């Protein structure tokens, strides 16, 4: 049995997506795969089992049928945090090692989803470096590539992982920093003994959300073009200026959602004349009949929400800031981009090779 961890330097940079892609690639090669998540942070109850929501979905993509209660043995919840602080939580490390032994029992390859950063889980001795040592596995570290900067977080992980760090994969690399990542950051890391497997470019489709998902998240009411709520939006903009400035502002981004007050007819009309997938009207203030008619004519859903603009923006930031996993089209796209950008065979060999830790 082989196993490795896919971890990340910070949340929401594609770690789970790569786990899905690698499970699919290994499964297509005839391997019996299993998925394991030692420490979950999205508590949910499924089939009377207290578990992690994403872990439920991802584990179903593996070919082996591991028990759900063992796939993610430790889940952070309000009760869990209270028990940890009060000193009532049991030995989480033993829970993890026992569950891993059961999950990996008949698998050729176990892909372990690590924490969202180097320190998550440290309070119960389940940080990235502690889990890598506990399970005696190597690590693929996914690093953000959206801006030019020194890779301090990579070195921070390398300091404690030592030779357990098999290498780094840059993800979501924007066009603006592609040259920096390939010509500067990668050679810099490799001169310091840290292997870089490659870089996967930014793709707006992967972080897009449907209008229906926005409606559900905001508890909104669709006032127009309800048949088009399955359309995808790639970003959102806030309209709080005059109509002339709004038109120029909204033209900067295609396939967007515009958030504005329900009483701002001028901003709403300006947004409708650009590539806008939906209008989110805050403050529970309905639009004028004229604007509503124009939105219906153009096929743009108008969504009325009770939240104020600030609260709406905070919720949308969380939605657009992470990839929503439960979408087969997105999973297929991640796999396509990974195999086009990285020598997957070489990466898997490095991740499963045995090497004595430093």
List keywords for this structure.
single chain; 358 residues; alpha/beta; Rossmann fold; Udp-n-acetylmuramoylalanyl-d-glutamate--2,6- Diaminopimelate Ligase, Chain: A, domain 1; 2 domains; 5-stranded mixed sheet; 15 helices; 17 strands; 41% helix; 21% strand; globular
SSE arrangement:
Blueprint: E1 2-8, H1 15-28, E2 33-36, E3 39-40, E4 43-46, E5 49-52, H2 53-59, H3 68-71, E6 74-75, H4 78-86, H5 92-103, E7 109-113, H6 128-135, E8 138-144, H7 152-161, E9 165-173, H8 178-191, E10 196-201, E11 209-210, H9 211-218, E12 221-222, E13 232-233, E14 235-238, H10 243-250, E15 256-261, H11 265-272, E16 276-282, H12 289-298, E17 302-304, H13 309-320, H14 328-341, H15 344-352
Parallel strand pairs: 1-7, 1-8, 2-7, 3-6, 8-9, 9-10, 14-15, 15-16, 16-17
Antiparallel strand pairs: 4-5, 11-13, 12-17
Helix pairs in contact: 1-14, 10-11, 11-12
What does this structure look like?
Helix content is about 40%, strand content about 20%. The chain folds into two domains: about 1-200 and about 325-350, P-loop containing nucleotide triphosphate hydrolases (Rossmann fold), CATH 3.40.50; about 205-320, Udp-n-acetylmuramoylalanyl-d-glutamate--2,6- Diaminopimelate Ligase, Chain: A, domain 1. The longest helix has 14 residues, at about 15-30. The model has no long low-confidence stretch (mean pLDDT about 90). The protein is of the alpha/beta class and about 350 residues long. The strands form five sheets. The protein has a six-stranded parallel sheet, with helices on both faces.
């Amino acid at each position: 049995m082989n196993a490795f961890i896919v971890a990340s330097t910070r949340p929401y940079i594609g770690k789970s997506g790569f786990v899905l892609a690698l499970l699919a690639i290994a499964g297509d090669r005839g391997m019996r795969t299993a998925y394991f998540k030692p420490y979950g942070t999205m508590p949910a109850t499924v089939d009377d089992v207290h578990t992690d929501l994403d872990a439920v979905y991802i584990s179903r993509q593996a070919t082996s049928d591991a028990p759900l209660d063992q796939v993610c043995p430790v889940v952070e919840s309000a009760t869990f945090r209270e028990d940890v602080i009060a000193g009532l939580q049991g030995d989480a490390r033993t829970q993890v090692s026992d569950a891993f032994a059961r999950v990996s029992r008949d698998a050729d390859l176990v892909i372990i989803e690590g924490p969202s950063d180097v320190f998550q889980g440290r309070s119960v001795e389940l940080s990235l470096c502690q889990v890598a040592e506990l399970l005696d596995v190597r690590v693929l570290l996914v690093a953000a590539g959206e801006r030019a900067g020194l890779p301090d977080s990579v070195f921070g992980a390398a300091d404690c992982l030592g030779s357990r760090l098999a290498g780094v994969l840059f993800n979501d690399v924007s066009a603006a920093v592609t040259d920096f990542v390939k010509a500067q950051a990668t050679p810099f890391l490799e001169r310091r003994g840290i292997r870089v497997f490659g870089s996967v470019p930014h793709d707006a489709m992967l972080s897009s959300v449907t209008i229906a998902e926005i409606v559900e998240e905001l508890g909104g009411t669709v006032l127009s073009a309800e048949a088009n709520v399955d359309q995808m939006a790639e970003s959102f903009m806030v309209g709080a200026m005059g109509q002339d400035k709004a038109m120029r502002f909204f033209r900067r981004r295609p396939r967007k959602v515009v958030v504005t007050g329900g009483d701002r007819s001028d901003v709403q009309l300006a947004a409708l004349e650009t590539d806008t997938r939906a209008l989110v009207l805050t403050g529970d203030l309905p639009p004028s009949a004229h604007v509503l008619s124009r939105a219906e004519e153009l096929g743009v859903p108008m969504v009325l929400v009770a939240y104020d603009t600030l609260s709406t923006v905070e919720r949308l930031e969380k939605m657009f800031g992470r990839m929503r996993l439960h979408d087969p089209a997105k999973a297929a796209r991640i796999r396509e981009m990974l195999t086009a950008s990285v020598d997957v065979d070489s990466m898997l060999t490095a991740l499963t090779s045995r090497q004595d830790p430093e």
